[in-house]
Design goal:
Elements: E1 10-18, E2 24-33, H1 35-41, H2 43-51, E3 56-60, E4 66-69, H3 71-77, H4 81-84, H5 89-92, H6 99-109, E5 114-122, E6 128-140, E7 143-152, H7 154-167, E8 171-174, E9 177-183, H8 188-205, E10 209-216, H9 222-237, E11 241-245, H10 249-257, E12 266-268, H11 271-286
Parallel strand pairs: 9-10, 10-11, 11-12
Antiparallel strand pairs: 1-2, 3-4, 3-7, 5-6, 6-7, 8-9
Helix pairs in contact: 8-9
C-alpha cells in the first residue's frame, strides 16, 4: 500500500540478515511496483480486450473514470482513447440517463452481475445510440472497477420499428377515407400499436371514415378482440366512422363470446363492400 492509501501490485523480496555468528538480526526488503506490468502480464486477456469487436470499457466503480477502452468503444462513442481515459462518463455526458449507471453500480455492489440492460448513450457528435450493456465488478490495481461490454442495437431497434409499422399499415384510399388491411396473427400488442398509429393518422389526415379489413385474420383471442373494440370506440371519439370488413366466423364467435354490441359496429362481408359503405358515408357527410 502506498502512502496515499492506494493499493498496488508489487514484487516483494525479503532476505534474512544475519550477523558474523549466523544469528538472525533483521530482514531486508526490496519492493518493485508491478502495476504497469500487471496489465501486460495478462497478455491473452489484453489481446481479447483490444481486438474484441464489441465495445468494452473499464472504469472506476466510484466515479466512472475510464481506465481502459478498446478500439470498438472508441468507434462507438467517437472519442479517442486519449480523450476518454482519465475522464468520467458524467463529465463527457455519455449516458443520456446518468441514473442508469447509478443503478448498475448498485446492482454490482450488491453482488449481482448486470446483463443486457438496454439504455441510450450519446456520442461525441451528439448522436444518440441505443445499446445493451452487461457489466461485472472486478478488482484492478487493488480498486473495485466496473468492467462492461456494450452491444449497439440502434439499427436493430429501427428495423423492428419499421417492421411493426409495415405490419399494421394505414393507407389513404381517398381524401377522408383510411383503410387498414390486417394480415396474419393480431395479438394484444399489435392491436395496441394499430390503435396508436390509426388515431395519429386520423388526426393528421382528418379522416372521416376508416375501414379495418380483417379478411386476412383467421381468428383473434378475447383480449385482442376487446382491444379492437376499444380502437373502434377511440376512432369514434375523434368523429370518424368505423367499418369492420371481412370478419371470419372465428372472429365473429370471439366477439359474441365477449359480449360485443355488434349492432353498434358497422360490418361488411368483404373489403369492397366496406369501401362502398365508407364512400357513401363520406358523401352523405359532405352534403
Amino acid at each position: 500500500m502506498r502512502k496515499d492509501g492506494t493499493r498496488f501490485w508489487a514484487n516483494v523480496i525479503i532476505t534474512a540478515i544475519k550477523d558474523e555468528q549466523g544469528r538472525l538480526c533483521g530482514f531486508g526488503k526490496v519492493t518493485r511496483d508491478l502495476t504497469e506490468r500487471k496489465w501486460a502480464m495478462g497478455s491473452t486477456f489484453e489481446k481479447l480486450f483490444r481486438v474484441n469487436p464489441y465495445p468494452i470499457m473499464l472504469s472506476t466503480l466510484e466515479d466512472g473514470r475510464y481506465l481502459e477502452v478498446n478500439a470498438s468503444f472508441c468507434r462507438l462513442t467517437g472519442y479517442s482513447a486519449k480523450e476518454l481515459i482519465g475522464q468520467t462518463s458524467i463529465d463527457l455526458g455519455i449516458w443520456v440517463e446518468p441514473d442508469v449507471r447509478t443503478r448498475i453500480v448498485s446492482e454490482l455492489s450488491a453482488g449481482h452481475p448486470v446483463r443486457e440492460v438496454e439504455t441510450t448513450m450519446r456520442t461525441k457528435s451528439g448522436q444518440i445510440r441505443t445499446v445493451q450493456l452487461s457489466a461485472d465488478l472486478i478488482e484492478f490495481t487493488g480498486n473495485p472497477c466496473l468492467f462492461a461490454t456494450i452491444m449497439d442495437i440502434t439499427e436493430r431497434r429501427r428495423l423492428e420499428a419499421a417492421i411493426e409499422e409495415l405490419s399494421t399499415p394505414v393507407l389513404q384510399a381517398q381524401e377522408g377515407l383510411l383503410v387498414v388491411p390486417l394480415i396474419g396473427l393480431v395479438d394484444a400488442r399489435r392491436a395496441m400499436q394499430l390503435r396508436s398509429q390509426l388515431l395519429n393518422d386520423i388526426r393528421a389526415q382528418r379522416a372521416k371514415a376508416v375501414v379495418i379489413d380483417l379478411t386476412g385474420v383467421p381468428k383473434i383471442d378475447p383480449e385482442t378482440a376487446d382491444g379492437l373494440l376499444r380502437t373502434v370506440d377511440a376512432v369514434r371519439l375523434l368523429g370518424a366512422h368505423v367499418i369492420l370488413a371481412g370478419i371470419s366466423l372465428g372472429i365473429a364467435d370471439t366477439l359474441v363470446r365477449i359480449g360485443a354490441e355488434l349492432l353498434t359496429v358497422k360490418t361488411t362481408a368483404d373489403l369492397q363492400n366496406g369501401l362502398e359503405e365508407a364512400k357513401a358515408l363520406i358523401n352523405h357527410m359532405d352534403q
